[in-house]
Amino acid sequence: MRTILVAMGILAATSLSVFAAEPVKMMDTKMGKIMTTPKGMTLYTFDKDTKDKSNCDAKCLKNWPPFHADAKAKAEGEWSLVKDVDGKDMWAYEGKPLYMFAKDKKAGDMTGEGMGGVWHVAK
Fold first, then answer.
1. 121: how many CB neighbours lie within 10 A of its CB?
2. Cα 36 to Cα 107: distance, rounded to the nearest angstrom
3. Helices in 20-108 by DSSP H: which ranges?
4. Cβ neighbours of residue 70 under 8 Å, at least 6 residues apart?
5. Which of 13, 98, 101, 114 would disulfide-bridge 43, Cβ 3.0–4.6 Å?
6. 3-state DSSP: the chain helix, strand, coil percent, rounded to 5?
7. How many other CB atoms are there within 10 angstroms of residue 24's CB atom?
8. Distance, CA of 19 to CA of 13 (rounded, Å)
9. Residues in Cβ contact with 86 at an 8 Å cutoff, skipping those fewer than 6 apart
10. Do 53 and 66 touch, CB atoms closer than 8 A?
């Protein structure tokens, strides 16, 4: 009986860690630690967004693709899901929707930083 309880405890602990995984990774850069996609593409925030709402319209999303969430993604802690203009779920951190920049071509590029005075690398 004790073996079963220990096994169930281990299973529960490892299952929780799967669900608690953050959808981004942190990368060290000259600007400090920044958020990136799992593939290393820089993530950005948009000053014109409001808490838990993307204000990037269809034209905007061509240059600033949303950081979409997987179909099974669950909001947890500082991480929430918001809808883009197409109704698809995208990740938000502390209520700020996250985007990539179309002109960033490789992992670590940060060419969108400061663009138009309203786009900023997510930290």
1. 19
2. 8
3. 58-63
4. none
5. 98
6. 20, 30, 50
7. 18
8. 10
9. 58, 61
10. no
Instruction: At 30, list the tokens.
Output: 């000259």
Tens of pLDDT, residues 73-116: 999 999 999 999 999 999 999 999 999 999 999 999 999 999 99
∠ CA 39-74-93, nearest 5°, is: 60
pLDDT in tens, 31-52: 999 999 999 999 999 999 999 9
CA 19 to chain centre: 15
State how far the Cα of 57 lies from the Cα of 55, in Å rounded to an integer.
6
42 phi and psi, to 5 degrees? -60, 140
Long-range CB contacts (within 8 A, 24+) of 78-87:
79/22, 79/23, 80/52, 82/52, 82/53, 82/54, 83/54, 84/54, 84/56, 85/54, 85/56, 85/57, 85/58, 85/61, 86/58, 86/61
Residue that the structure tokens 């809808």 belong to = 83
Round the CA-based radius of gyration of the chain to a whole number and report it.
17
